[in-house]
Amino acid sequence: MKTKKMLFVTQFEELWFDALQSLMDLRKSGFNHVVFLHVIERDKVAMRRGKGYLKDQEVKLREMANVRFIDWAEDLFVQGMEVGAYIVVGDILPKIISTAEEEGVDLIVTGRHRRPKLEELYAGSETLELLRRTSTPVLVHKYMLPSGKINEKPFERPLLALDWSPASENAVRYLLGFKDIIKKVVVIHVAGEKTFKSDSAMEIQAIRKKNRQKLEEVCDAFRDVGIEAESHLYVGATCEQLEKAAQEREATMIVGGTTGKKSLKEIFLGNTAKKLAERSVFPTLLIPANTRHEDS
Amino acid sequence: MAKKILAVDDDPDIIIFVKTVLEENGYIPLIARNGETGMAMVREEKPALVILDILMPKQSGIRMYREMRFDESLKNIPVVILSGIAKRTFLRSQEALTEFGDQSVPEPEAYIEKPVEPEELAEVIKKLVD
Q1: What residues in A contact B54, CB-CB < 8 Å?
Q2: Which among A69, A79, A85 has CB closest to B96?
Q3: Same structural domain for residues A162 and A90?
Q4: B56: alpha, beta or left, given left = phi > 0 and alpha = psi -120 to 50?
Q5: Which residue of B has its CA nearest to A101?
Q6: Where are the domains of chain B?
């Protein structure tokens, strides 16, 4: 699947125009259409006692978003890109899903949207909910590096996390489509401490060898299409180790597959995807297992 | 017989405004909310004029304008661009698309940056249609 059309979701809090500009490298692989989405959250304009629906507030928020989108769109139009925009009132998650479907986008780019703690307890994570309800890859973009600089080319050196599930195989196929912009891919598997439950050194070494072989097979697939690749096997808590590896290997983003289902068995689902998406300093690209590919 | 004029815009307030101007001046308004639907309606209805916004869902006015100008049966329908996007941007974007290998397209018959007074819009339409 080529990433030609992107849904860029902004609440004008985390993601601004420079976040979009940091993704312009994707043009080398066919990206040429941006759809902006700003959702005016319902409670900002909702009925108030004695005031009714805050229409004036809606108009104000709508026009503020419109001014920004026009400015951004002008920059993109003169580069020959196609641009569309939606400014809507409602709840952010359903609006992202419906707009992505209506426009048929290939990638959803969003910032970190976190529900309040109590709401999350009942409704779950917004990021996970989005992944459950879409087959479109989601990039939770953090474009400012801890150093304060902009992460200018997030696709240049991705760290690909593999748990050997069909979902992570899908992530491999997806990344292979970015051969024009990826310079090097860092392929990693994090083995949990439970993997080493045997007290036999031979057995542990065998596990290590098997995982290394699998990692090298994936690296070969990247090398075959001209992408440099290196593999690493880490041990420990998945999320912490992925973050550590991304820093040590100077990765520009973390990539993983997700099943889109509630399954505790899936490493990249549940806490890991949620933690990485919401807490990691790296952009996090999450690829649902049912994402379509160029070769499918 | 009253002439049909197609307005393509996703802003409901602009749609109401344009519709009112058209009705008050004796035209039949046709409405489309994005470039994709707009293009389908131009083909079907062959309006006397198109009032076109630029930044819209599905398909922008920039692409719709090009598509109209490349279509033998539609290329002579006058187009009034009514948009918040500057004319300079519109022209430069058309140049950029031409540089990517497309044919060049002529400038639109009129370009109005929003907002517009009803009298100004009515005058531009009359000049092009009557």
Answers
A1: 73, 77
A2: A79
A3: no
A4: beta
A5: B58
A6: 4-129
Which residues on chain A are in Cβ contact (under 8 Å) with B86?
A: 74
In A, what residues contact B, Cβ < 8 A?
35, 66, 69-70, 73-74, 77-80, 82-86, 102-103
Helix, strand, coil shares of chain A as percentages rounded to 5? 40, 20, 35
The verdict on A207 and A267 lying in the same domain is: yes
Fold of B4-129: Rossmann fold (3.40.50)
Nearest to A77 among B56, B58, B85 (CB): B85
CB-based contact B60 A35, cutoff 8 Å: no
Reported confidence tier of residue B93, pLDDT bands at 50, 70, 90: very high
Subunit contact B54:A69, Cβ cutoff 8 A: no
Q: Name the DSSP letter for residue B42.
A: H
The CATH code of the domain that includes A253 is 3.40.50.620
Residue of chain A whose Cα is closest to the Cα of B55: A84
* ipTM associated with this complex: 0.95
Q: Give the three-state DSSP class for B30.
A: strand
Under DSSP, is residue B17 helix (H, G, I), strand (E, B) or coil? helix
pLDDT at residue A263 greater than cutoff 60: no
In a domain, A117, yes or no: no
Residue A129 placed within a domain: no
A223 and A157, same domain (yes or no) = yes
Q: Do B57 and A69 touch (CB under 8 A)?
A: no
Which of the residues A56, A70, A77 would you substitute to probe the B interface, choosing the one with the greatest number of B C-beta atoms within 10 Å?
Answer: A77
Domain containing residue A16: 1-111
Rg (CA), chain A: 20
Element (H, E) at A233: strand A228-235
Kindly state whether residue A157 falls inside one of the protein's structural domains: yes
Q: Of the candidates A111, A137, A165, which is a domain's last residue?
A: A111
Nearest by CB: B58 against A66, A79, A103 = A103
Tell me how many domains chain A contains: 2
What is the number of alpha carbons within 13 Å of residue A119 lying toward its C-beta? 7
Task: Using an 8 Å CB-CB cutoff, list chain A residues near B60.
Answer: 77, 82-84
Residue A254 CA neighbour count, 13 Å, CB half = 31
Boundary (domain end) residue, out of A96, A111, A126 = A111
Dump pLDDT digits (tens) for B106-120.
Answer: 999 999 999 999 999
Task: Give the pLDDT score at A53.
Answer: 75
> What is the tens place of the pLDDT at every residue in A13-34?
888 899 999 999 999 989 999 9
